[in-house]
Each structure stands twice: as structure tokens, then as C-alpha cells.
Model the fold of this input.
Amino acid sequence: MTALAKLTALEAKLFLREGAMAFFGIAFPSVLLVVLGLIPALREPSKDFGGLRFIDTFVPSLVVLTLAVLAVNTMPTRLATYREKGILRRLSTTPVHPGNLLTAQVVVNCVAALAAIALLIAVGRLVFDVPLPHHLFGFVLALILGGGSMFALGLLAAATAPTARAVALIALPIYFVCMFFGGVFLPRMLLPDLLVTIGTYTPPGVQALQDAWTGAGPQPLQLVIMAAVAGVAGLVAARIFRWE
Done:
């Protein structure tokens, strides 16, 4: 087993060992969908949602919630805690490369995100008959690029914060901005047009996910912007990350 594989396995065990982290990262979006689905009015088709039900249109926002929790909350907080407790300083005396630690964290949290989204889709389909994404390839592409942009921003926050408290000052604004424009706090159709437009191009690109889920697929510009954010933020994070 390579050093990267061993480190990834260790990080996965640590992730699962913290029950609250695993619950909010993987199970909570599906639990929230069930809670909302139990409200009869949200299971009725409405012209406000283009003839769909609220729960049909809200699933992409729950995907945003999943990515926000794992990418810009859980992951950077853990890395900053490692730095604060001196764990990164001790790792610096070993052959472990910083890139391996960052890669292990991204892999573990990406797998958790995929598990959470798969569970969300399964619960929506089996419990509430929520349709599957109409444009599957577009949804997968939007998820990869949008998720990549979020994880890159999370790494950037972790790379610049010396402590867990400091990372909160950097990551939490990103977290709340993504959640707000992603329609988690308030359905996007209730927002002013300007805010909806801004949210269309704000990571992780909820409009691209929505278009792939209920429409013909995401717009190229949406995907290009997500890819650009992922590339730039990821490159900067990799260059400035230090053990301490």
C-alpha cells in the first residue's frame, strides 16, 4: 500500500469515528428532505415551480448543502485543527508530502459527498418519487465541476488559516454565501432576479445542477466558471499550503 493510500485510509477512519461529522456530512441532507416531504403542501405540484413540486426542485439545493458542509466546513476545519495542534508540524519531519495530505482529505470528503448525494437521490426517488436528473451527463459534469470549485475554495481557506478559529473567519462566509445563493435558506424563485443571476455563477453552480435535473442541461458558461474557480483556487491553495 502506498503512503497516499495509507494516509487516505487513516483519514477515512478518523472521519467516520466522529459521528456528528459523518451524520451532518452524509445523512443530514436526506433527513431534511424527509422532513420537508412530510409537509403535504410541499408534495403538491405548483405553478410557482413550473408544475413541479417543491421537493422536486429543492433536491439540487440539498446537493449544494452537502458540498458546502463537507468542502468549506468539515475539511478546512480539520486541516486547520491539525495545524493548530502541531500535527502538521510533526508530519513535516516525515517523508509525507503536503500534497498527499491534501489529496487524502479531498478524496475522503469527495467520497462522503458522493455517498450523501447517492443517498439523497435514493430517498427522494423511493420515498417521494422525485424524478431522477433528466440530463444525467450534464448533472454529473455540473457536480464534478461545481464540487471541484467548492473543494478548491475549502483548501484555499485551510491553506491560509493558522488555527481552527481563523479558518472559521475565512470559510464560514464562503459557506453562507454558497448556501444563500444555492437556495438552501430561501427558495431561489423567491429571490430578486439579480440575486438569482449571481447565484447562477456562484459555486457550486446550483443553476447548472437545477438545469440538469429538470431541464435540458447546464449552460456552458456555468460550467466554465466552475472549472475556472476550481483551477485557480486549487492551484493557489497548493502553492501556499504550509505545514505551519
